[in-house]
Design goal:
The protein has two domains: about 260 residues, Rhopdopsin 7-helix transmembrane proteins; about 160 residues, 2-Layer Sandwich (Alpha-Beta Plaits), CATH 3.30.70.270. It is built from 15 helices and six strands. It is elongated, with a radius of gyration of 30 Å. The chain starts with 6 loop residues before the first helix and ends in a 21-residue tail after the last helix.
């Protein structure tokens, strides 16, 4: 069916003229007869794209959101188009028919361009702030999809257009997509989007990628190896900048969502889990420790003087103090353990990774050392203030079993309060614990 899609091309090729312009190009489209260095260049580009796809996949693992899935789809679809345009599939799969490659090249290019335009509009947020660019991008993406469908019909032989070079049409419409993307990013940058300035750089690499790869597909013998190497580097650079900017904008949106209160179960200032979300994370930590037959340690840190600077520096400094203290705690314990905010003055840390007693002692020592350091907070009216944290630490060691998270946290917080008041040491024996469901050590 595919071979029947270009019946005129075969007659024209025999006459050394026509569809693929073989008189001006020794090979026409890339047909697999690549020198070893050319295969090496495109293979390196493919390796870079696979690495960036793994990076986009890790973003999904970190935050399973629609935006992170869009990033992965962008790398896979656009990357597939780049590999097809390079002609590498013909070199790696000698049995691949040239007409099949031509069909894929001419259709995948505009399709991936439409995807880039659509995702770029979402990334810039033009639907809310710039209706002109939003309309332009939508119409441009729709035009790219329509042209891609038309070229697919031509390639399948269902539509006959004598003398049409589908790859040249695909190159022209894809270049239009690059122009639309570039003007959207320039406009966003001029209107104050700081991150859009770097997206302009990504669009510059996009232009190098699109024009260069189409040139390699149309006139493979006329492009030198250094130029092909530069095109490969530009392609990987575009994806690298694009994936990085996408991840940064996703993190920015998640932070704004959390600060707006849309992320239920997390504190706005610190981003730490609270309430039922914290209890569920503690329960999961207990379950993991029970599965591993390991001891679990719960540490509570009660910040006694959180509100002591309200009159001198204003109540806004409370959020600064909470943010700084949560950052210090996370620095001290790393990213392996659960850190939460039981209530505004009580942080909790759940150590459930089978850490030994000496390791827990060193961790608590680091906590004390970091939290004891003075903190500089700012007040717009009165300038800077020094805040010296005053806190108590309560420690509970338990074998999880049937331990109830809220009871364990309550008990550990009481130990932190008693430590502040000098009534007991932060770590107590099981004889002083009142949580019967989980024996403390």
């Amino acid at each position: 069916m595919l071979n029947a899609g270009f019946p005129l091309a075969k007659r024209l090729n025999n006459a050394k003229t026509g569809l693929f312009k073989v008189s001006s190009c020794k090979r026409g489209v890339n047909n697999g007869r690549m020198v070893a260095m050319e295969v090496f260049i495109w293979s390196c580009m493919l390796g870079g794209l696979i690495t960036l796809a793994c990076g986009a996949l890790s973003e999904i693992v970190v935050s399973n959101s629609v935006a992170s899935w869009r990033g992965l789809a962008y790398v896979l679809v656009m990357g597939t188009s780049c590999v097809l345009m390079s002609g590498l599939p013909m070199a790696l799969v000698p049995g691949l028919a040239p007409d099949t490659l031509l069909l894929l090249q001419s259709t995948f290019g505009p399709l991936s361009g439409a995807l880039v335009l659509r995702y770029l509009g979402l990334w810039l947020g033009v639907a809310l702030v710039d209706r002109v660019v939003h309309t332009t991008i939508n119409w441009g993406a729709s035009l790219l999809v329509l042209v891609s469908g038309f070229l697919a019909l031509v390639g399948a032989g269902w539509v006959q257009v004598p003398g049409l070079n589908p790859l040249l049409v695909s190159a022209g419409i894809s270049s239009l997509g690059v122009v639309l993307a570039f003007q959207a990013c320039v406009r966003a940058s001029m209107l104050g989007d700081d991150m859009a300035r770097w997206m302009v750089v990504a669009c510059g690499f996009l232009a190098v990628m699109v024009l260069g790869l189409y040139a390699c597909a149309l006139w493979p013998d006329d492009i030198s190896l250094p130029a092909k190497a530069a095109i490969g580097v530009g392609t990987v650079a575009h994806f690298l900048v694009g994936v990085t900017l996408t991840a940064r904008r996703n993190r920015q949106n998640r932070r704004l969502k959390r600060m707006a209160g849309d992320a239920k179960g997390f504190d706005r200032a610190t981003g730490l889990p609270t309430g039922s979300v914290l209890l569920s994370k503690v329960d999961d930590a207990f379950w993991r420790a029970d599965r591993a037959q390991a001891e679990c340690t719960v540490v509570a840190l009660h910040l006694r003087n959180l509100y002591s600077m309200g009159e001198a520096a204003g109540h806004a400094v409370d959020q600064q103090i909470l943010t700084a203290m949560s950052a210090r705690i996370r620095r001290a314990v790393g990213f392996r353990y659960v850190v939460g905010l039981y209530h505004p003055r009580c942080f909790v840390v759940i150590i459930s990774a089978g850490a030994k007693a000496k390791e827990v002692d060193r961790l608590v020592f680091r906590l004390r050392a970091l939290l004891n350091k003075p903190l500089l907070v700012s007040d717009p009216r009165a300038g800077m203030h020094h805040f010296q944290p005053q806190f108590g630490i309560g420690i509970s060691r338990l074998v999880p079993g049937t331990a109830r998270p809220q009871e364990v946290l309550d008990e550990t917080e009481q130990r932190a309060l008693a430590h502040i008041n000098g009534e007991m040491l932060p770590e107590m024996d099981s004889s002083t614990a009142s949580t019967a469901a989980a024996p403390f050590r």
